[in-house]
Amino acid sequence: MVFNLFKKKSLELVSPVTGKIVPLEEVPDPVFSQKMMGEGVAILPSEGNIYSPVNGTVMLVAATKHAVGIRAQDGTEILIHVGLETVALNGEGFTTAVKEGDKVSVGQLLLEVDWEYIGKHAKSTVTPIVITNSDDGKKSFNLTDEKEGFQGKTVLLTVSAK
């Protein structure tokens, strides 16, 4: 039992929405594909709303409702950016269920999304999930080999202390 005290804990990010898992390098936006915002993965949603992938605290709800940032309990900062060029929609197609400072649990509703509207009015519905503080050099990242992500079930990414 004593040895478990020294075991490094890892953080599992579960899929915030159901859909096809897309490597970040394949997202058709250089900010994400070149990992300018950090390490991560993306989902091409097939259904459902956006739910929290971790237990943590909401750090950011974009004024345009297209993105939510969460600080996990271990300090990992996660940005869920719904679709590409969705900031131009000025909040249309999104309904927020949380606000900055809210504590959230895995599977808790963050955003309601009208995918049909987003699909017609945005560049893409692909949804990057990015670790915005991944370049601090203190963590390693293990991406899933799965091809489909199921909201609340599929572990997309495991974050471990180095």
Strand content: 35-45%
Strand line-up across the major sheet: 9-5-6-7-11-3-2-13
Radius of gyration from the CA trace?
Answer: 15 Å
Low-confidence stretches: none
Helix run count? 2
**Outline type:** globular
Number of strands: 14
Structural domain count: 1
Write down the CATH topology.
Answer: Glucose Permease (Domain IIA)
Order of helices and strands: EEHEEEEEEEEHEEEE
CATH superfamily: Glucose Permease (Domain IIA)
* CATH class categorisation: Mainly Beta
Helicity level: under 10%
Main sheet attributes: strand count, strand direction, barrel closure: 8 strands, antiparallel
Which key features would you list for this structure?
2 helices, globular, mainly beta, 162 residues, three-stranded antiparallel β-sheet, Glucose Permease (Domain IIA)
What does this structure look like?
An eight-stranded antiparallel β-sheet has the order 9-5-6-7-11-3-2-13, with no helix packed on it. Strands 1-14-12 form a three-stranded antiparallel β-sheet, with no helix packed on it. It has helices at residues 30-33, 115-121; strands at 10-14, 18-23, 39-47, 50-51, 56-61, 67-72, 77-81, 94-96, 103-104, 109-113, 127-131, 139-143, 148-149, 155-161. It has one domain (16-161): Glucose Permease (Domain IIA). The two termini are 22 Å apart. The protein contains two helices and 14 strands. The relative contact order is 0.28. With 162 residues, it is mostly beta strands. Helices cover 7% and strands 42% of the residues. A hairpin with a 5-residue loop joins strand 5 and strand 6 (67-72).
